[in-house]
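Usage

Read records sequentially. Each one opens with the input sequence:
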Amino acid sequence: MANILVLGCGLVGRTIVKDLAKNHKVAVVDISKENLEEVRKFVSVDTYIGSVDDKNFLSEIVKNFDLVVSAVPGFLGFRVLKSVIEFDKNVVDIAFFPENPFELDELAKQNNVTAVVDCGIAPGLSHMIIGYHSSIADIEEATIYVGGLPFERTLPFEYKAPFSPVDVLEEYIRPARFLHNGKIIQREPLTELELLNFKGIGTLEAFLTDGLRTLLSTVNVPYLKEKTLRYPGYAQKIKLLKDCGFLSTEPIETKSGNVVPMHITEKLLLSQWKLSPEDEEFTIMRIVLKEKNTKKKTIYEIFDRTDTVGKDYSMGRTTGFVACAVVNLLAKGKIARKGIIPPEILARDKDCFDFTINYLKERKVQIQVFEE
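and closes with the structure output:
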């Protein structure tokens, strides 16, 4: 049994706390009293109210724990991860911050810290699948399709955000990077639309987003892309907002003073995109792997829906359970490597890969594998 501190108790952090508390001693920090009260409805854990961005506050708490899980919003993620490493604590991170995590690699090694980053579904499980297969076969092409959506399609966006809207909007303004013939190419996000059919769901649209992150430099796969899945027509609506300047991060002058359009858009969309307790949603991911010589295709399809009994959203489950699997690997001493470790490198160890897949299956996350 490990003594674990979880930073952040939103929809994903709450699921992580509940799952880890079954076998470990767990405490959680959040700036929101409401979030902490919510998780304590399900499990008895110690709670701390405060900002994890305050190093003095965080240092006093972290020192009492064996390892840390960072489930903070992306804009805080890099600073918080750096602080945890400076406190000499092993850490599993799902913050998905925009900065390059390898900038902290030397610091982690100097402090004898194992820091496993991007431990969600995508990035996370997607990277593990590609990392594992590219270590045992000559993969020429890999494409990740992934998205989380509500079952009830409410206009105009037909979308609900299981995490901070600002993190979602960030995906639509950051250039999408992918690999083409081994070279990094940049394109505008929300482009290269295609339609895909999913059994039991129907037709979804897929468009480019910048989700490959460390995969761009850690695997030998010449053709590599990630696309986000939404209901058809969504990309056009977001592109309209973008073209009209509503996603701009540059301040503009108004009668009320200078404002940042993105901040206004985020506030306006918060109520429309917020998942309510009665909302049911699903997470879907399809990964298509093509081998170079044999042209054999291996297709992973992952599906999960809201757990109405346990009161966990599917995005919390699929993201959180991957993080929990890695936490358990760390707690069992199965990860000896120090420094920054992305999921694709961790998954080169077949035992780590199999443990994660089985961990999800045990929690009834549907994982199907096909070969063509």
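Summary fields computed downstream for this record:
- The chain has a mean pLDDT of 94.
- The longest strand covers residues 139-150.
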